[in-house]
User: Fold these one by one.
Assistant:
Number 1:
Amino acid sequence: MSKENIHQRIIELRSALEDHNYRYYHSSQPVISDLEFDMLMKDLEKLETENPEFFDPNSPTQRVGSDLNKEFEQVRHQYSMLSLSNSYSEEELRDFDQKIRKLTDQKFEYVCELKYDGTSISLRYKNGLLEKAITRGDGTFGDDVTANVRTIRSIPLNLKGIGFLGEFEIRGEILLPFSEFERINNEREELGEQLFANVRNAASGTLKSQKSLVVAERNLDAYFYYLLGENLPEDGHLENLEAARKWGFKISPDTEKCQNMDEVIAFIRKWNTKRFELPVATDGIVIKVNSLSLQQYLGTTAKSPRWAIAYKYKAEQASTILQSVAFQVGRTGAVTPVANLEPVLLAGTTVKRASLHNADIIRNLDLHFGDTVFVEKGGEIIPKITGADPNFRHPMAQPVEFITDCPECGTALIRKEGEAAHYCPNEDGCPPQIKGKMEHFIGRKAMNIDGLGTETIDLLYNEGLIRNIADLYDLRKEQISRLERLGDKSADRILKSLEVSRQVPFEKVLFALGIRFVGETVAKILAHRLINIENIELASLEELTNIDEIGGRIAESVQAYFSKPENIQLVERLKQNGLQMRLDEASLANRSEKLKGLSIIISGTFEKNSRDDLKKMIEQNGGKNVSSISNNTSYLLAGNNIGPSKLEKAKKLKIPIISEEDFQKMID
Ligand code: IVH
């Protein structure tokens, strides 16, 4: 194929894939199978790899995301991102209406929209191509999250149709559908990671993830509700959104025009419960004046437009009976009280349990068994109890008291100064804590043992086959294959995966040990600074705290871990089993102290190295890579397209700015 033909084919494939993508994510009416879609994608990927001159950041192949660790640049919003004033009653809405009618005699219409509960985003398009995606930030400056936004499949990278402006912005809400939220939290639970409290946090946390690969995996969605630019196609807000829908944006189908406040209020009532049937979270209704010229005439206050208002639904409440309280011991030993309730219908689902959080909350609520309690469902996973009604209390009702001993192992619970939670201190003898350690060890970010999950760990533990992480390496095939729901195949897979884990790099092994406060980053720092497990075992408190980013709390925890003979023995057994207990040769070879004591910030895009590589080079040479500029920053390593605010700040603080070449010279 000639270059010209190849280019033509690439263009055809991109357009076909965008079209299928649109059918799938917007109208849910795909015309080809997933497999066919994947095949077309593979064809395109192949052509693009073989012909890098035709690279295009807006190609559908780029939606898979990359694993590069990028900091976000701060970008100034072209139009500042205002928020809305809130209202909670019909009366407040009628006041809002009256205020507008005082300012104009003109006849006008309202548009009512659902108020989506996610995280807001502003997209800038130039000549039909997505140019930038910026978070709200402080309303004036926001984070450039373009790389992450590109992975959201319902957001068009190339606009369709005709009539779009050369340059415009569109704003909307990035959302995590409930089904995805559940899937992600289940996955996080298995990995022993902290759960997202609600869909809003999950959406904004995901959007701010440093890895677009993670964003791509999470299937975020987005609805758009505000078009901005010069010479918009229509004077009507709704009409403009309809135009935007034709260009490929996802616009809510549930938006309606209303002629007056009575119609607005009817719309609000209609969605009061209907909104729970939607796949995404909503927390109210937004009411906007439709005419842009009237919007402009009404203007804005410093914080919000005068032509729009949000009506927020009250969190739904129900009352029910508190039957009992269960105390659950988590993997970290933290004890959580959970209320068992007489089942009650709340916001579309039957509620049987509610979180009670900790002893203080139980005491403040003055809860008694058999109480009539109020439950409320915010966006949280499990509802909470907001109060008890003492009028319905039985005179002999017993107060709910926090337990004193661990329900799993009987050890007396402790509560640390200043902490709300009670803990079971029997780290090495309390079953959920032992199992928790093993689950952490096998997790994807730790030893990544395929085939082993929470359930298998439970089975192996209950059968008495494993008591600690080192026991995993003594497992024999017949011990695994005879277990319920497992067989020869699963046993082979688990053993193979354990075998492969012997090559997992030292820093991950260190993380996998589950030493308190030694997360992924700390494990990496310790591994690179102290090189092998013996040095870490023997390091004094001073040696540890002398390492940048290792504070007293971490250092003490490391020492406490290695002060226990059973842990030393455990590590020894893992070493005997062939696990990596020292930094690999390649990392060792590239080490130097040339940047010792220097803090370097990386900004922009580079020609020779990726930002991840540069970060590694800084660390390998004893320097520290920092993410925000301060007086303590030694250098700004600047590439192309560096954010103007960063540059400005560096100049102001007189921080030397170096290029990729200068940097290379420093370490050569
Ligand atoms: S309009 C100047 N419409 O609510 C008006 N906002 O409290 C800009 N939101 O920051 C906002 N759904 O994140 C608008 N249909 C909708 C919305 C909506 C959700 C969010 C948005 C905004 C916040 C304001």
Number 2:
Amino acid sequence: MDRILIRGGRPLDGEIAIGGAKNAALPLLAAGLLTEQPLVLSNVPRLADIATMRALIAQHGVGVAPLDDDGRTLAIGGAIRCTEAPYDIVRKMRASVLVLGPLVARAGEARVSLPGGCAIGPRPIDLHLKGLEQMGAVIRLEGGYVHASAPHGLHGAAIVLPMPSVGATENLLMAASLADGQTVIANAAREPEISDLAECLVAMGGRIGGIGTDRLTVEGVRRLHGATHAVIPDRIETGTYACAAAITGGTLHLRHARRDHLDAVLRVLAEAGVEVLEGDGGLTVRRLNGLRGTDAMTEPYPGFPTDMQAQLMALMAVAEGAAMITETIFENRFMHVPELNRLGARVNVHGASAIVRGVPTLSGAPVMATDLRASVSLVLAGLAARGETVVNRVYHLDRGYEAVEQKLAACGADIERLAG
Ligand code: EPZ
């Protein structure tokens, strides 16, 4: 298993190009199942999770063809010949369940393995299933699989989500686009990746109102057609590299970054003493003076994103004073804490909150990545730590960050990947 070696203490200075959003590209790829005609997606990031979703779509018999040399523009299209999403793919990536809605809507049936838990919590899909049942699907759980069928198609429904689930909103939005009649999804999640999906569905002929709000109204159509759509920039990658500039005391220009997708994150960074300026097609981030401990609580969008919690904790570990970070979305998303403490951080977890007491410097050590965002928080801490840090199990990192060591090395970090 690859490892990453970092010799910390060097301020970063330079430019990083922000890639397409992983969490937009994944549902957009699944949306390609909704029509036989080609859906062309550009600015698709080259990540392990994207490769997994491409393999899953190919498993359904639908073509996924790269239209450029570096595989960032993909054309998805063709007839669905298999409606099964097998366990050996779904267990690798929970987002595989996003094929459920499109398969039932387009092919009238689906056999999708239950995702099972993952490192950050049990992560059920009950809200996805209840919404599809309201739209007329017959759902049966057997042998670790969801068996869903709607031989006469889906019909519109008035759905109220008890919590603004991102995946449930995406699955139900895609299913409703081909249902007979009107569907209203109330208490829908409002993440920018959902608006990106909705805009793409509209380009495909879908009829969706309330985009960007917590109430989506969908008038189902008989069929959708092909379209061309560019994936939005990745706001979590942007926030992560903003923390890299701040934690090393450097200056980074994040090309393509969009300020409007990061209000809550930029507000917390400003309170912590980080300056973010808009211009030259992106954002320029630098630490003004010392870092100040700043509290944060993760919330559904537009609140502070749970996917930035671990990265903020690394930053707060070297701030002056204390910070309380509260995780309200996932049950077990503090596994980076013991690893950060191995680097000399002083973090104590009390239930859903972690108290971070800033220290003047961290010191390098071997650490273990446990999930995608935890792994990148360890890289951030390693960039600031004195001495050598080795991050193990970086396959977690490769799921969501493209060429992270190249991007950081190009800005002056002493970082390299140790194969095997
Ligand atoms: C999406 O996961 C993201 N993944 C996650 O990013 C992100 O952390 C999460 O949204 C929250 O913003 C993708 O977009 C591919 P949820 P998702 O459904 O859809 C519970 C990353 O690092 N829940 O909003 O799975 C669930 O257990 C990843 O890029 C139910 O109880 O998130 C969790 O506690 C990690 N029943 C909470 O809701 C359901 O049917 C949030 O889940 C669905 C969810």
